[in-house]
Amino acid sequence: MAGMELRRVASQFVVKASGAVLHQLLDRLLEDGVLKDEERYSIRKEMLTRASKARRLIDCVIKKGHTASKKLIDHLQKIDPVLHHELGLTSAQPGMSGLSCDPNLLEEPRSSADH
């Protein structure tokens, strides 16, 4: 699964992802609905080091599930194909949970009756 793949490369991602790459990932994940405005803002605007922002982003996305993790991997491949290759990432299959990475913004997952 994509989340396990991100866990495997998390420490390398934290070291190697540039600030510009992180900002582009945040924007694209917001556009996809993976991140909420508040989540993107808290990662982007808080007084965090680049490495702390990268760690917070990857942890946040992993908590959201497989599809969210896959979207991060896919966007990284488009934004920075060299880093994507260095990390040894591959493509994955869909399936996202409705969880928030911010404990203050947790949503209840929808039941199958809600669909």
UniProtKB/TrEMBL annotation:
CDD domains reported in the protein's UniProt record: CARD_CASP1-like
Stretches the record annotates as Disordered: 91-115
Domain called CARD: residue spans: 1-91
GO cellular component: AIM2 inflammasome complex; IPAF inflammasome complex; NLRP3 inflammasome complex
GO biological process terms, semicolon-separated: proteolysis; regulation of apoptotic process; regulation of inflammatory response
InterPro entries documented for this protein: CARD, DEATH-like_dom_sf
Protein name: CARD domain-containing protein
Molecular function per GO: cysteine-type endopeptidase activity
